[in-house]
Fold this sequence. Notes:
The structure is a homodimer of 205-residue chains.
Chain A: E1 5-8, H1 16-28, E2 33-36, H2 43-60, E3 64-67, H3 70-75, E4 80-83, H4 90-97, E5 102-107, H5 110-116, E6 123-127, H6 143-152, E7 157-160, H7 168-173, E8 178-181, H8 183-186, H9 191-204
Parallel strand pairs in A: 1-2, 1-8, 2-3, 3-4, 4-5, 5-6, 6-7, 7-8
Helix pairs in contact in A: 1-2, 1-9
Amino acid sequence: MDLSLYIITDENLTLEKGLVEKVRLALEGGATAVQYRAKNKTAKQMYREANALRKLCREKGVPFIVNDRVDLAVAVNSDGVHVGQEDLPVEAVRRIVGWERIVGLSTKNLSQVREANGLPVDYIGFGSVFPTGTKEDATVSGIEMLKEAVKLSIQPVVAIGGINLSNIDRVIETGCKNVAVVSAVFSAEDVLTATKKLKEKLKKG
Amino acid sequence: MDLSLYIITDENLTLEKGLVEKVRLALEGGATAVQYRAKNKTAKQMYREANALRKLCREKGVPFIVNDRVDLAVAVNSDGVHVGQEDLPVEAVRRIVGWERIVGLSTKNLSQVREANGLPVDYIGFGSVFPTGTKEDATVSGIEMLKEAVKLSIQPVVAIGGINLSNIDRVIETGCKNVAVVSAVFSAEDVLTATKKLKEKLKKG
């Protein structure tokens, strides 16, 4: 499970037709994990999109993770599911998906990181590290708290929130090995090059 | 599986604190099945509410069905799940919940009823039979089409949409054995009496 360059889809940044193609380019550029996230679609639409992405990720040997909807994760036979603090409790998620699938949990402060250490999760997301346009109401933790989170967590930490080419070095300097990006890849005119540049930074780090 | 008086919760008609109590009164009044439906809550909130309702329904020996969220249905160990045409496809739902749980599907026209005859469902909802305030954009099928649906369907049909004490007789006259109600029970000042009166109509029918 390599979560070092973890890309998350965004329905506002990709039209359905462009979604698979953009993810394909990001994978070609070196993305190591894909999360399908959609908030304003019907489950039927999500099922169709997630099935297409799952197929692509399977071909590329990259883990495919579904956000929030555990039923969708099982329905498309994803490699994992990612939930937030307001989603189904992680213990319930684990009962549904079993131990073969990856379970990730979003955390935004050290208290949640500490709690996650006692939960049946395979990794945690931590952030928002920087302000982000994708989730405008997200609490910003800052780089120092990320550093603490990485020390505190017994699970791999994926930094998330406003990370892009101009600030990824600061994330890497905290000791965090994994970054999740949305806009930095999917808003780019040239998804392939944008992903490659992030990848280079991670390799150097 | 007795779906004859099938009550569906509505987050706009019940505060969280009143929800379990209102369902308890409806069960005392003769409701034979309960569906938990919520569209604007977090999964965490739904998990809490659905767990409480499931416990109550189990005590009363009445099937408890979760709307839309198949993961929630599994998480709270409900007796069944109900999905619409825009939710996860019924085949995918069946793969997740297995054959022990009830699977219901909403239909709104005869073409969907015909299609449902070939799907792995245990019952269908049909409607909106009358105009309804709960789903203002719902297509109204009318009583005549319900009659056709009941003839056409190989599964039990649950009539839904705007059914109340003043029009339930017209539903019963079509040959339909099952009615689903939301407002007719949950908007009532006196939930117990409102349910009892509907129950009497069904018994006579």
